[in-house]
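User: Assemble these into one structure.

Assistant: Restating your components, then the assembled model:
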Amino acid sequence: MSEMQSAAFDPLDPPKRAITADVVVLTVVDGNLWVVLQRRGDGADEPFPGRLSLPGTFVGDEEELLETAQRVLRDKVGLTVDARQLSRSGVYDLPDRDPRMRTISVAFVVLIAEHDHRTFIDTARDHGQLYQVSKLIDGGEDSQIIDQREPMAFDHVDILTEAREHVRVLLEETDAALDLLPPVFTLTQLREIYDAVWDASLNPGNFIKRVTRIDGFIEQVSPDGISEAEFPSSPIESDAAWMVYESVPSFNSVSTSDHAGSGAPSRRLGRPPRHFRSAGSAKLHPPLRRPGSYFSRPTSQE
Amino acid sequence: MSEMQSAAFDPLDPPKRAITADVVVLTVVDGNLWVVLQRRGDGADEPFPGRLSLPGTFVGDEEELLETAQRVLRDKVGLTVDARQLSRSGVYDLPDRDPRMRTISVAFVVLIAEHDHRTFIDTARDHGQLYQVSKLIDGGEDSQIIDQREPMAFDHVDILTEAREHVRVLLEETDAALDLLPPVFTLTQLREIYDAVWDASLNPGNFIKRVTRIDGFIEQVSPDGISEAEFPSSPIESDAAWMVYESVPSFNSVSTSDHAGSGAPSRRLGRPPRHFRSAGSAKLHPPLRRPGSYFSRPTSQE
DNA sequence: TCAAAAGTGTTCTGATTACACCCATGT
DNA sequence: ACATGGGTGTAATCAGAACACTTTTGA
């Protein structure tokens, strides 16, 4: 059978387009979800001068888009991440999304832990490159009347919105939340990650029971970092120093020490928590669904 | 702040790539999932001569990729579908996936109902363009030893594999199953769609209870097509002809009438079923999960 | 009367949620 | 002693699954 041809294009010389990979770098600090943005230049023929934008660049000749995203992170952001931490979140192809030329963008999301990239996050904060995701998407916290969003370049607010939803699903179905934590963490730290990304207030007790039931997700470690399958719930004989990676209260550190709810999780108060690390499996069985996805009646956790 | 540049590309003249939209046309006939494929030509400089491939073409200048997919369906397949029925299922960007040039493909999936496109399906079957998805992906049914898959061109078997998984999730979370049925259908017809796409054998009684509980998914209609909110379960007073769109046993119609399990659903045997139509809402609350996604223990429905 | 298909009822299991309560530690 | 945060127990509610059973038709 002869192949039907669309008659519009020569298959030996089809039209070519500009392709970019844009990267949404997300992190949780101080109980909030932050994104790394750059500010566009003020050149005369630059579109969206002075606007906030996601880092991105054009795909190379012999390069997968995932590698392009890694290159963007290395060259334009200053981050080195594993390929497995990057997740494709969307394709953006409206013909007029870039006023200069026809540009199709593929968006990637990466979650970085405050602990693993402490110096980067401090530097980005000092340069004003960290923005609260909820304020960019929904507007300010008390913006019932006035929308105080700062507008982003191109359709990057759409990319950010879909990236946040993508990450919320990732936290339901995979162990992506561990990318936002140090190698050893407590269940409270893990719950605060889910609270921040889902914009939830999960019940601490119920969270412990749900998350420890998922097989292959997390495993308890002794204070010195050795995993123990049957580690006792109350470490009575432990007097050694706990090898805990603490969170730094880098934001809101204006010495008003008791208004930021979940600023410094490990300040040696109350019963000492157990410590956990990743148990290896990337997919959660069963998934850890957001509040309200099971029951249809209204709940207080939603 | 000066914008960092990757130094590899001129932002005013970035490298350009060929972009295509490939379409995975799926339908359920005779209890199986089928895909529409084309066979590549035997030209000397054609890659993958004679291989099976998904229909696709290059994106136009002022055209979204979704519109490209619609154009492919109209010009190369001979189908006219609504834009809402098309769903993006993946991006394929390996540098060497097309031996001719660097080509990045975006895949779309569309589900067509046997009833709505009966002449098209008959024509496609006569031209040998319909293939069973499970045989292309997994091999033949009894291929424990011999893999009798016919190889597909490019990475189209990967596209097809991810498209099937995409559709399986679509049937969990949206009313996409209704795209595979006529406007008025029975619960048995709907269950056979889920059985075919999920490769499941859902319990008929449990399926009825689950699916009728989902608010806004389907609503019962009287035999003449008028919806009734409180339609009685047993239509005692009905003697009029039922306006039912019946399935045609177009495949396996070799007169061995009792071996193809779910060939012709409406053959006037047993208790007459109720009839339903779409209730409008695209997203299902709660979703209709596949067997085994809730319980962790092994089940017989899986 | 019998088979076949549609639909209901019942029971068991298990997940979600709410909330009370206990445990361990610093001040 | 007391506050604070970590963690367990328990009960109510609801969903998934298995399966027996009833209903309604054609043969």
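Chain A has two domains: 13-172, 174-222+275-296.
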